[in-house]
Each structure stands twice: as structure tokens, then as C-alpha cells.
């Protein structure tokens, strides 16, 4: 490649090439121009000039036309063909006008005739160079403008915002590429369209104000949110129409009239920023602030907001509203045995059943864990709340089918009524909570209206709960034993272990005083284990004293049986005390079985295989379905004392007990009648061939020493030979 030498000096001195076949003229011209400060290169003839032009750059060439072989015209043709950027002044002795015209047509700046006046030549050279400089400056400017136009276009099209202009009628006459990317409309489809074509109808008024902006600069409209419709194809399947929220800033555009006088409004220039992601994030934050994320229900914050509204309306219209506090019974057991995943699913299912019990306008909220609240914003009377509450309690009666588990749940509900039970939001929630606790204490799976007296018992309960926690560590529990006796022979066959709490603060407490709280708090599990261990230990002691054969019966709460390791625990306990399984009888209620029939049956079968006996306690008070009893490995039925206490006088109870006795006989089940206090009850049961009785008639529950004495006496009377040593725990 030919190297191009730049003859244009770095200082900006113009480079001039002079071309002539007359050396004399060349020399004089060179001296003239050099004396004026130009940088001059001379070429002796057309061919030499062409050679120089091939690899050097000049600003100006002074060219003689008539030269032998290669003429000035040839040089000019070479310049044109080679697209050489150079100014040309033709200096020629040819006086014909054609020659001048031809030179000028080929792009010569000027034509000088020989002989020329030095001043004339210098002036022409100066003018040509000035013109050239101006042309170059102009070209630079054009290039800069083109470059900046390209940059501007690039920036506009790649802007994250829509940039547009509207004409004075509000029709789009420019949109950057972002508009199509965001809204879906091809640009050419929107050009010429009025902005109302894409503005969501509800926001049209705002749009009319914003997009017709005539003001400029600081006074113009900024950051106005307007929803814009996207092209149909842009919408999700779920949406009717896809809307984008854009934040518009717009400014009036004015043109000056030709005379530079008045300004004419020609349209609006605007920028629209897509704020939909921000809006979505705001909506999400807002949703999270007011909702429970697991169930989608209202959370405490929204519940209180709704209560505030209900209270304002109730005050204005002088009406009542109800607040309910709900807590799932034994939810902890579900979590502990089936895992938190199932626990969460249960909460979602419970929420959905609760929702079905409510009317439009009622608020159901989840406060966290297994606690829910309900607001009935307008009720006529307490019965309104009562019927809603009983519907709620009943709604959980059927088991939940969760991931192949049949889960039974029940709920305890407390109700407070505005204005009778409180005139502030917090008081009403607190009192509903207190009533809920009362409900739990009274056996769960029920509702309870708040009453002032509950405040005291609630406080008592709290302190009792704390004391109960410490009672285990401080060894304050003891086990009493109540004999179970053969009806026909008065022989003790078993001892029921019944817990007592020797509280330093409250004295001797019976199970009814603390078992409900122990169940609520889950403390029933360690407390129950204490009773089981004490009873097994005592059975071993009695065995060593030769007071056997004797079984010990222990009450088992549903939470105990729901413990995943319950069967193993019992098995290890029997091994530890070296007891055969049949020495231990576990008393469970129908309620326990019904909580989770499959799980309970599985465990009862395993326990039976260990030889452990199962007694169905409080029989007759629950569902008392004989059908299902057959399905379970039950050895004994305990007739509840409520059927026994007025025997034989009460014909109803007499027939029930008579039927139970014959049924037990038919099913080959053993029977124990509880709460036998009178001789005539005993005689009646004897005639019905009820196998065993338990009750004050024979003995109250006794401390271990007295129970042992009784056994020793009883065994010596009946011919056994007990060792005369009383061992206690
Ligand atoms: N989960 C556990 N529950 C237990 C445990 N220990 C007891 N309990 C349950 O507490 C309830 C009350 O028990 P308690 O106050 O001990 O009452 C027992 C007897 O004293 C009472 N009884 C016995 N005979 C008579 C009588 O002739 N008349 C009369 N009025 N009451 C009598 O009955 C209770 C025994 O009932 P039951 O268990 O159904 O056989 C009670 O429900 C206990 O089950 C424990 O360790 N864990």
C-alpha cells in the first residue's frame, strides 16, 4: 500500500503544490509563495505532479494547463478519479473561455491567466485556502452533528423509558423503540394515533391534564401515574387486559415563527417511565403487611383496622359486634407427630372451613400459630354470635384428609361482645382470648362467652401453669391408688393410679384442677410418664411383696398416645421393671380413639402384642358405639359413674347398665363399674354379673402406704401370704 505523506504542516501552514513545465516560472512562483509563509512543493510537469499527489496530501495545487505529455486537464482528471481532497487554481496562458469553463467544471476554484499579477495570485491563493478552511470546518461540524444525532438516537431508543412527542392535537408523532417493547404496539401503528387510544379509561382525565401539557421547564407536569393498555397479545391468559402503570413527565414544545418573534405551541414532548415493577413491589409489601402469608387471611394489623371500622359504625348506629378468639386444640401434637409441613397444611384447611362458616363482611384473621380471630361486624344479639360460633366448632368435626393422613382437629372459641365486654379493640381481643382459655379449660371443642369473673381465673391459670412446670422438677406429684374389686368375691384385682399434686402454695390438688392445664401446655406428657413409671415401679414392689397377681391401671391422655415413641416407651418401661405386659392396664377414652382412629388402633395393636391391657374409660359418655369397639383390641369397659350413681332407682340408667353388661358379656369384654358408693348399687351390679367395681364403697383412692396396707390385709384375709414389709416410692 502507498504510504500517504501529510505535507500539511503540524502548525497549520498550508501546503501548496505548484505544477508547471517552465522551471523559471516554477522558481519565481515558489519564491513568491514561500515569501508569504506557505509551504511549497513544486512539480516539473503533469506526470511529476500525479506522482506527488499519489502519496502526499496538499491543501492547494496551482496547476498549469498546457504541459507536454501530461496536461493540467489530465492532472485534474486524476484528482477527480482518485477523490483527492484538494483545492485547485488553474494558472494558464490559454485565454479561451472554454478552457476556463472546462477547468471550473472539473472543480477548479479559480482560473488565472498568465501572466498574472503577483498580488492577484496571492489574493486568489488566500481566498481559495480560506474557502477550503471554511468548507473543512463546515464538514467537521456536519460530521459532529451527525455523530451527535447518532448518539442522541441511540440514547433515545435505548432509554429504559418511553420517549414520545405529540402534535398539538395530542397525536403521537414520535415514539422511541422502548414504546413497542413495553406496550407491544408497533411504532407505526401508534404514530398518528391520539394518546387516548392507549390510556386506560379510568385514567383518561389525569391523562388529559398531563399529556396536553403546554407548560415548559420547571412548571411542567412531572411524575404523574397513568395506566396504559398494552396490545392485546401482550396480556396474560388470566388477564382481561394488560395494564402498565407509567409515570409521565411532559413539557410543551414551541416553535419560533420565521421572523423570530412569537412562539407557537406545536405539541408535547414527554417521558414515560414504567413503574409497574415498583407498583407490584409496593402491592406485595402492602399485601404482606396486612395478610398472613400461609393462609392468605387477614393478619392482626388488618383485623385491628377492620375492628376500628366496625367500632366506629357500631358507635354511630348504636349496634353490637362480636370478636372471636379461636385456638386449635392440641395443634402442637399434630406438628410434633406429623411434622410442620402437615401442620401448615392443616392450618390452611382449617382456615378454609372457617371461611365457609362466615358471611360476607365478616373478617377472619390468623394471628399466628394456631390462633385465629373473627370479627362479626354487626350482630342483633348474642344468639347471632352463638350460632356462628357453634357452626365454627361443628365445622371441624369431620377429619381432614392431608397427604394420606386422616387428621382430627377441634377448636376452642372465646367470644367478646362490643360494647358490654370492652370498648377498646385491645380489650375486646384480650377478653375473647380469656374466654377462649376458659373454653379450653372446660374441655375444648366448644365456645364460651367472656364473663368478668374469667379475669381472675385466667390470672390464676397463668400462675398455675408456671407452678405446674416447676412441680415436676420439685417432685410435688404423688400417685394415689384406688382398688378395683371382683364383684362376686370382694378380691382386689387391680389398682388405678390417680395423680395428686401436693402444691406448697395450694395444698393437695386433684387432677381436675390441673390436668386440663397440663394438657393445654403439653405438660401432660412428662406428667403422664411420671405416673406410668411410678405405677410400674409400685407394681414391681407389690409383686416382690407377694401381693400379686395384681394389675395397675393408668389413665393415658391422647397427647401421650400420640407421641411417636409411645409404644417403645411402654415396652422399655416393662423391661426396666421386669413386668409382664398384662400387669399394666392403660385407660383411654373414646375421644382419644376418635382423634385419629388409624394411628390409635396401630398403637393399641402393638401394645396388645406386648400383653398390655386396654380399658375404655368413661364408657357411655361419648359416642359409645359398640360397632367400633369390636375393631380395637380392648379388654375392659369402664361404665362411667354417671350411670352408676342413681342405680338401681333410675330406670333409664338401669336399662343402660343392664344393656352394657349383656353387651360386654356377648363381646367377651371385662366390665368395671365406676363410682360405686352404695351397697344397693353393688348388689344391682352383682345381679347383672358386672365383673368388677371401683368406688368409695370399697375404698377411696389411697396414698401408696395405705393402699399397700389394704392389699396386705386383703391378701391375708383371702389366704395369700404377703411379705410384711411396706415399700413405697
Ligand atoms: N391423664 C390423666 N388423668 C388422670 C390421672 N389421674 C387422674 N386422672 C383423671 O382425673 C380425673 C379425676 O380423677 P380423680 O380426682 O382422681 O377421681 C378419680 C376417683 O377419685 C373418682 N372416683 C372413684 N370412685 C368414686 C366414687 O365412688 N365416687 C366419686 N364421686 N368419685 C369416684 O373417679 C376418678 C377416676 O376416674 P376414672 O379415671 O375415670 O376411672 C379422672 O377423669 C381421672 O381419669 C393421670 O395420671 N393422668
Automatic annotation (TrEMBL):
SMART domains: EAL, GGDEF, PAS, REC
Origin species: Sulfurirhabdus autotrophica
Domain Response regulatory: 15-129
Keyword terms of this UniProt record: Phosphoprotein
Leader peptide range in chain numbering: none
Domain PAS intervals: 148-218
UniProt xrefs under Gene3D superfamilies: 3.30.70.270, 3.40.50.2300, EAL domain, PAS domain
Limits of the GGDEF domain: 319-452
Name the UniProt record assigns to this protein: Response regulator receiver modulated diguanylate cyclase/phosphodiesterase with PAS/PAC sensor
PANTHER family: BIOFILM ARCHITECTURE MAINTENANCE PROTEIN MBAA (PTHR44757:SF2), DIGUANYLATE CYCLASE DGCP (PTHR44757)
Amino acid at each position: 500500500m502507498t504510504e500517504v505523506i501529510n505535507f500539511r504542516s503540524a502548525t497549520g501552514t498550508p501546503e501548496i503544490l505548484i505544477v508547471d513545465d517552465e522551471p523559471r516560472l516554477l522558481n519565481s512562483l515558489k519564491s513568491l509563495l514561500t515569501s508569504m509563509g506557505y509551504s511549497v512543493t513544486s512539480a516539473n510537469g503533469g506526470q511529476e505532479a500525479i506522482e506527488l499527489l499519489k502519496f502526499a496530501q496538499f491543501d492547494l495545487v496551482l496547476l498549469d494547463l498546457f504541459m507536454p505529455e501530461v496536461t493540467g486537464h489530465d492532472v485534474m482528471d486524476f484528482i477527480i478519479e482518485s477523490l483527492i481532497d484538494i483545492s485547485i487554481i488553474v494558472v494558464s496562458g490559454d485565454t479561451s473561455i472554454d478552457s476556463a469553463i472546462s477547468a471550473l467544471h472539473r472543480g477548479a476554484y479559480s482560473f488565472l491567466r498568465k501572466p498574472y499579477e503577483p498580488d492577484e495570485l496571492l489574493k486568489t491563493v488566500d481566498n481559495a485556502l480560506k474557502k477550503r478552511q471554511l468548507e473543512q470546518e463546515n464538514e467537521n461540524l456536519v460530521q459532529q452533528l451527525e455523530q451527535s444525532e447518532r448518539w442522541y438516537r441511540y440514547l433515545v431508543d435505548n432509554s429504559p423509558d418511553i420517549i414520545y412527542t405529540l402534535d398539538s392535537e395530542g397525536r403521537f408523532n414520535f415514539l422511541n423503540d422502548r414504546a413497542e417493547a413495553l406496550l407491544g404496539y408497533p411504532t407505526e401503528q401508534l404514530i398518528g394515533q391520539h394518546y387516548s387510544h392507549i390510556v386506560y379509561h379510568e385514567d383518561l382525565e389525569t391523562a388529559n391534564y398531563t399529556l396536553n401539557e403546554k407548560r415548559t421547564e420547571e412548571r411542567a407536569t412531572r411524575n404523574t401515574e397513568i395506566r396504559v393498555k398494552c396490545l392485546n397479545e401482550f396480556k396474560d391468559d388470566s388477564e382481561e387486559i394488560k395494564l402498565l402503570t407509567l409515570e409521565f413527565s411532559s413539557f410543551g414544545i414551541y416553535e419560533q415563527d420565521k421572523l423570530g418573534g412569537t412562539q407557537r405551541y406545536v405539541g408535547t414532548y414527554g417521558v414515560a417511565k414504567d413503574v409497574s415493577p415498583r407498583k407490584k413491589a409496593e402491592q406485595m409489601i402492602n399485601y404482606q403487611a396486612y395478610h398472613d402469608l400461609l393462609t392468605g387471611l387477614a393478619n392482626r394489623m388488618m383485623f385491628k383496622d377492620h375492628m376500628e371500622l366496625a367500632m366506629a359504625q357500631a358507635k354511630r348506629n348504636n349496634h353490637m359486634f362480636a370478636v372471636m378468639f379461636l385456638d386449635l386444640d392440641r395443634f402442637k401434637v399434630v406438628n410434633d407427630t406429623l411434622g410442620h409441613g402437615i401442620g401448615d397444611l392443616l392450618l390452611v384447611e382449617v382456615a378454609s372451613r372457617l371461611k365457609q362458616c362466615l358471611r360476607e363482611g365478616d373478617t377472619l384473621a390468623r394471628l399466628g400459630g394456631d390462633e385465629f380471630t373473627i370479627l362479626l361486624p354487626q350482630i342483633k344479639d348474642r344468639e347471632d354470635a352463638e350460632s356462628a360460633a357453634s357452626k365454627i366448632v361443628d365445622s371441624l368435626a369431620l377429619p381432614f384428609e392431608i397427604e394420606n393422613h386422616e387428621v382430627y382437629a377441634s377448636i376452642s372459641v372465646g367470644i367478646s361482645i362490643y360494647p358490654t365486654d370492652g370498648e377498646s379493640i385491645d380489650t375486646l381481643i384480650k377478653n375473647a382470648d380469656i374466654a377462649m382459655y376458659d373454653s379450653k379449660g372446660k374441655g375444648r371443642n366448644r365456645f364460651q362467652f367472656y364473663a368478668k369473673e374469667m379475669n381472675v381465673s385466667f390470672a390464676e391459670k397463668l400462675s398455675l401453669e408456671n407452678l405446674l412446670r416447676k412441680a415436676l422438677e420439685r417432685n410435688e406429684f404423688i400417685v394415689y391408688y384406688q382398688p378395683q374389686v371382683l364383684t362376686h368375691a370382694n378380691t382386689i384385682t387391680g389398682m388405678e393410679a390417680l395423680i395428686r399434686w401436693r402444691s406448697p402454695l395450694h395444698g393437695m390438688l386433684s387432677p381436675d384442677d390441673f390436668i386440663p392445664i397440663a394438657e393445654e401446655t403439653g405438660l401432660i406428657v412428662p406428667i403422664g410418664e411420671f405416673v406410668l413409671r411410678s405405677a410400674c415401679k409400685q407394681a414391681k414392689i407389690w409383686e416382690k411383696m407377694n401381693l400379686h397377681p395384681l394389675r395397675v391401671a393408668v389413665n393415658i391422655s391422647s397427647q401421650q398416645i400420640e407421641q411417636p415413641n409411645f409404644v417403645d416407651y411402654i415396652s422399655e418401661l416393662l423391661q426396666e421393671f421386669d413386668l409382664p405386659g398384662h400387669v399394666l392396664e392403660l385407660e383411654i377414652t373414646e375421644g382419644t380413639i376418635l382423634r385419629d382412629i388409624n394411628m390409635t388402633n396401630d398403637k393399641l395393636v402393638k401394645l396388645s402384642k406386648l400383653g398390655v391391657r386396654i380399658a375404655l374409660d368413661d364408657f357411655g359418655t361419648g359416642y359409645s358405639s359398640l360397632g367400633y369397639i369390636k375393631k380395637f383390641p380392648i379388654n375392659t369397659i369402664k361404665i362411667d359413674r354417671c350411670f352408676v350413681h342413681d342405680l338401681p332407682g333410675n330406670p333409664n340408667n338401669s336399662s343402660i347398665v343392664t344393656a352394657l353388661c349383656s353387651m360386654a358379656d356377648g363381646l367377651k369384654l371385662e366390665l368395671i363399674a365406676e363410682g360405686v358408693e352404695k351397697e344397693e348399687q353393688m348388689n344391682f351390679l352383682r345381679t347383672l354379673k358386672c365383673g368388677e367395681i371401683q368406688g368409695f364403697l370399697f375404698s377411696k383412692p389411697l396414698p401408696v402406704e395405705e393402699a399397700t396396707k389394704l392389699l396386705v390385709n386383703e391378701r391375708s384375709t383371702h389366704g395369700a401370704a404377703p411379705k410384711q414389709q411396706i415399700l413405697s416410692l
